[in-house]
Amino acid sequence: MLTSPPSFSDIKRAHQRISKYIYNTPVMTSANLDVFSGCQMFFKCENFQKVGAFKMRGAANAIFSYRPEDRTNGFACHSSGNHGQAVALAAKLAGAKAYIVMPKNASIVKINAVKGYDAEVIFCEPNDESRSKTCEEVVAKTGATLIHPFNDYNIIAGQATAAKELIEEVDDLDAIITPVGGGGLAAGCALVSHFLDPNMELYLGEPAAVDDAYQSIKAGKIIPNKTSDTIADGLKTTIGEKNFEILKEHVKEVLTVSEEEIIAAMKLIWERMKIVIEPSCAVPFAAILKYPNAFKGKRVGVILTGGNVDLSKLPF
Fold first, then answer.
1. Closest Cα partner for 301 from 198, 168, 180?
2. Mean pLDDT of the residues in the chain
3. Domain residues for 34?
4. pTM higher than 0.90, yes or no?
5. H or E element that contains 48
6. Angle at 229 between CA 277 and CA 44, to 5 degrees
7. Separation CA 67–CA 90 (nearest Å)
8. CA angle, corner 150, sides to 105 and 8, nearest 5?
């Protein structure tokens, strides 16, 4: 188990460990959206990943880092959906039980998906304190091993493999942009881009309504969110300490976008690329559209993080 920020060797080992449990997802382009944005974009489509999100990478790496004899009490986590689905499926593939703590207002699509992987769902109030406390109670009762959604170096190493695949497939990227919530994917992307091309710029897209990463990097210390009021349900969580320590060294800029901008960007990708993405996934594209001068004329890798949407509650 990793006890310090992953090296590139750690990330390569993680990639080998999880390769038979994940998809090497496609990279898609859109000439039409390139015209809209003024840059050349390469979309890493983790919405096509197992469980419909990049989270499968980190969960698989964390769970399969444990020896079979250490999996007997199962695994637990708290999640609004995608991490929960990933832990549920990875635990099932490892022959272990999964206990997933979910907020009462989580998407029904994500709740049903977690249950579909034979995990036990335990509901909590929709705030960080309740999620953490309820999960602690589950771990104490069951003896399960906690798989943190983001504040874990094994999770970071697993999520980093998405950027590794993107950079290895697409030559001469000038920048990568990813959403930031807890920061597992963002930290993984920061490390990989730094290891493979130190000149590559890393941008983070974040909802203005929950702009803890923006505030934290600006202040040099973690500033927790005071609200979780955003349509981007995967980005409501305050950034983790391990993630922040990595990101503050490597991030070019955190770009914030409004709820209206997130919805407009999501709709545009649905319409022009004919693929399903969730609101959290649209945040980086919304940031590119809002801040065109940062990306003008550049080759930009965009991580499309997930596509788990309740089709009965589309925002457009």
1. 168
2. 95
3. 8-53+152-313
4. yes
5. none
6. 25
7. 14
8. 155
